[in-house]
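The following block was generated as part of the benchmark described in Methods. Ligand: 6-O-phosphono-beta-D-fructofuranose.
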Amino acid sequence: MTPGTADLTVRTLGECRIDSPLVALPADGPTTEHYVREDDRVLFDDTLQMVAARGLDSGELPGFEPTGPRRKIFFQPSKTRVGIVTCGGLCPGLNDVIRGLVRELNDHYGVKKIYGFRNGYQGFISKYGREVVELTPQSVSGINEYGGTILGTSRGEQDADEIVDCLEHMSINVLFVIGGDGSMRGALRIADTVQERNLKIAVVGVPKTIDNDIPYIDQSFGFQTAFAKATESIRGASVEARAVPNGVGLVHVMGRHSGFIACYAALANNDADYVLIPEVPFELDGENGFLAHLRRRVERRGRAVVVAAEGAGQEFLADATHPGHDASGNRRLRDIGQFLRHRIADHFAEHGLEMNMKYIDPSYAIRSVPANPYDSVHCIRLAHAAVHAAMAGRTAMVVGRWRGRFVHVPISLAISKRNQVDPHGDLWMSVLEATGQPRTFG
Ligand SMILES: Nc1ncnc2c1ncn2[C@@H]1O[C@H](COP(=O)(O)OP(=O)(O)OP(=O)(O)O)[C@@H](O)[C@H]1O
Ligand SMILES: O=P(O)(O)OC[C@H]1O[C@](O)(CO)[C@@H](O)[C@@H]1O
Ligand SMILES: [Mg+2]
C-alpha cells in the first residue's frame, strides 16, 4: 500500500521551547530546491501519475519532514545525556557516523555527556559486563580512517525493558541506534517502551546496510563503498577468465534478500555476462536454462563472467541440511556460490567441453573497509540530521534521503517492508541491457 500522511508523521516527545544554539542557521532560510522550512514537506510522490492517483489537493499531498536544525529544540543541551550504539553486521562508514554525531553534539549543541554502548544491544544489559565508554571529540578523532566500529557490534535479541532500565539508570535523554532492519525493530521497541513508561527519551536511528535493503531511503550509507569494493573482484574474475581457454569467472557477493550489490557492482565495470539475484528466480537446467545459456556463450565468446548474490537460487539448495538461523533470527543462507561452481563444472564436463573456472568470493572484505569519500559525506550529513532531529525531540524515526532530500522517516515505515530490486524496474532493465542475459532462464 502506498503510504499516506499518517504513515509519514514522526512522533515527538513534546513541544520545543528552548532556543537552539544553532538558531542563526535556520533563521530565515527561504524555501528553495535545497532547503525547506520546518512546516514544509518533501513530497512522497515524484511523478505526475503518482500525484494524480492520490486525487488530493496539493496541500494534502503526503510528504516527509525535512531534516535540519530547528529554531526551537526540546532538550536543554547542557543537561542532555546521549547514548550511541552500533548493531548488526559491519558496514563501511559506521565510525564516520559515530564521529559525526559526537562532533555535532559537542561542537554545535554543547552536549558534553556522550556515551558509547559496546557490542550492540548487549551493551545495555549488565550480565554481558560490557563497559560503557565516554565519547569525546578527542576520542573519536581519526576513527573514520578505519573500517568496522569502535563500539563493536553484536547480533541476538535483548529485552527492551532491560535496555530502557539501563537508559533510565544512566539518565540518558537521547539514544542513537546505528543499525540495519533488525536494529531498527529493536529501536522501535525501545521507543515504545519509553513511551509506555512516560519517559522523555528520544530514539533516533541511522540506517546501516550494505545490502541497501531498507525502504524509503534512496541509498543507505556504506552501500556505495561495498559495491565499489565488489567491482574489484569482478574485474579480477574477468581478467582471469580472459587469460585461459573457455574461462568462467564466478563472483559470489553478499546480498541476503536484495541483489543491489550484485547489480551495481556488475554495472560499474560492465564486464559481467550474467547477474543472479534473489529477486529474480531462474532455471538451471534445460535448453533455455542458465547452464546451457552460459555454455553457449562461452563456446561463442571464449569466456564469461557470472555475478551471483548470496540470496540467489536458494530454492536449488532446499534439500541440503538447513543451516539454521543466526542469533538475531535471520535465516542463514546456503552457499549458492559453491553450488554454482560445481554445477557449472559438471555441466561443461557432461558436454565434453574444456572449462577453466576462477571463483572469487570477496565475502567480508567488501564491508569491513573504511567508507569511500562519497559515503563519508553521506555519513556526516546523516549524523548532522540525526542530531538535529533528536535535539528537537523527534523519536521512533530514522534519518534518510528520499528522492535526493534528507528527511525524517518513521521507523514503522522503514521496517514495513524490504527494499528489493524490482524485476520490472529500470535498474534490472539496465542490468539486462549491460549483460545481454535473457529476462528469464527456462
Ligand atoms: N524484531 C526485533 N525486535 C527487537 N530487536 C530485534 C529484532 N530483530 C532484530 N533485533 C535486534 O537488533 C540487533 C541487530 O539485528 P540483526 O542482527 O538482525 O542486524 P541488522 O540490524 O538487521 O543489520 P544487518 O542485517 O545489516 O546485519 C540484534 O541485537 C537483534 O536482536
Ligand atoms: O556473517 P554475518 O556477520 O552474520 O553477516 C552476513 C550478512 O550481513 C550482511 O552483510 C548484511 O545484512 C548480509 O549481506 C550478509 O548475509
Ligand atoms: Mg538485517
